[in-house]
Amino acid sequence: MNQENHPHEDPPPQVPEVDRSLLHELVAYLRDNRTELREEWVARITQAQLLGVMTPEEIFSEVTAVYDNYVDALETGSIETLQAYARDLSERIIPRGVETHEVVGIVLLLRDVLARALFVEYQRDADLLNRILDAYEPAANRIAVTVSVSFVEERERVIREQQEAIRELSTPVLQVRERLLILPIIGVLDSPRARQLTEQLLGGIQANRAKVVVIDITGVATIDLTVANHLVQTVEAARLMGASAIITGLSSKIAQTLVDLGVDLSMMRTVGDLQGGLEEAERLIGYRPAVKGSRPDAAAT
Amino acid sequence: MSVAILRQGDYLIASIQVDLSDSQVLELRDDLSDRIGRFRARGLIIDVAALDVIDSFVARSLGSIAITARLRGAETVITGIEPDVAIAMVQFDLDLAPLRTALDLDEALSLLDRLTQGAGEDGA
């Protein structure tokens, strides 16, 4: 979400000058009416059709835990326990598809339910009600922010992990036979991925003592100038390490793009499809690839 | 001299073990050129596996060593370029085409065998 807003916008560390006794009274009231308020809250959640992916029993047990943590946080002014619990809860519900708006909605609902209860309880004494709300509102807002931020942070952490996983999966370096590697590239080839591809390829060359690498880009739809130049550099870097790179599966669209962009392709060895590329690679390996302009007659030996 | 230069048959093997200053690089170039003539070497292998960094001056100098060596009658193969070094080198915007490369010493030796054999045949 609005990532840059969150980290530095921490609310004041302590509940400001409010009557500790009032807060105390407030907490006592919320504890006494725990059962009804909790049920009211669950009813509101169901009514708003939030948390559709969870069963009523699950909702009830989570709601109970959140309620108790919430009241504790109100009482002590310390949000660490609640924060940890929110993280933990997020970790459990994110894989099930609970959305940010649901979490925020639920916390705000609890805030509303409790505020409403306070109105009802203290409505005879407007002055007292005001002071009670003065004590309640900042704390409640702080809690709402904490829970929402915890959820979003947890979600971002999950997303980061998944991105990492996808990135690692996305460029496998496969050894086909002794000293021959292939790199099938599928999907969008952007700069970070191209960079990662270079690293994996060069690492693979070193680890497998590869002589030839076939980079197959059949599954790549488009390519831009930066990536094209990066590809050229990758081929050159592979050569510096003593391996020849063969690019296969250039679509006609990419081929035209490369020509239009004026990429220097003189160093690139390209073959139409993967099959042709592997044949070429085997020929090179049988007959030493590092020599440029190899002569076919020597392949027979 | 910070670079050990070994003789192996018709070939010279220079193994660079530490980062060289610019003047040491030039010294190496002259020394190699001199020895190629003295030993009538037909091939030169420069092993850079111990280097974590190759700056643009060293990269360019490797190229000029290769060209000088060829003029003196020896083919040059660079070996042992690390992945990170390779990535850095291609970003210098130098023409690295004169540099022949091989993965390791074994490869370099067999590449030289082929290169010098080919030259002999062509000459014949």
Instruction: Estimate the helix proportion of chain B, in percent.
Output: 40-55%
The largest β sheet of chain A comes out as: 5 strands, mixed
What number of structural domains do the residues of chain A give?
2
How many β-strand stretches of chain B?
Answer: 5
Radius of gyration of chain A (Å): 31 Å
Mean pLDDT of chain A: 81
Q: What amount of the residues of chain B lies in strands?
A: 15-25%
Give the beta-strand count of chain A: 5
Note down, in words, how this protein is organized.
The complex is a heterodimer of chains A (301) and B (124). With 301 residues, chain A is an alpha/beta fold. Chain A has 2 domains: 3-163, Globin-like (Orthogonal Bundle); 174-300, 2-Layer Sandwich (Transcription Regulator spoIIAA), CATH 3.30.750. Helix content of chain A is 62%, strand content 9%. Chain A is built from 10 helices and 5 strands, in the order ααααααββαβαβαβα. Chain A has helices at 20-32, 34-47, 56-76, 80-93, 100-122, 126-170, 191-208, 225-240, 252-261, 274-286, and strands at residues 174-177, 180-186, 212-219, 244-248, 269-271. Chain A has a 5-stranded mixed sheet, sandwiched between helices. In chain A, β3 (212-219), α8 and β4 (244-248) form a beta-alpha-beta unit. In chain A, α1 runs antiparallel to α3, α2 (34-47) crosses α5 (100-122) and α7 runs parallel beside α8 (225-240). The longest helix of chain A is centred in the middle third of the chain and has 45 residues, at 126-170. Chain A is rod-shaped and about 95 Å long. Mean pLDDT of chain A is 81; it is low at 1-16. Chain B has 124 residues and is of the alpha/beta class. Chain B has a single domain, classed as Transcription Regulator spoIIAA (2-Layer Sandwich). Helices cover 49% and strands 19% of the residues of chain B. Chain B has 4 helices and 5 strands, in the order ββαβαβαβα. Chain B has a 5-stranded mixed sheet, with helices on both faces. In chain B, α1 (22-39) links the parallel β2 (11-16) and β3. The longest helix of chain B is centred in the C-terminal third of the chain and has 19 residues, at 105-123. At the A-B interface, α7 and α8 of A face α3, β5 and α4 of B.
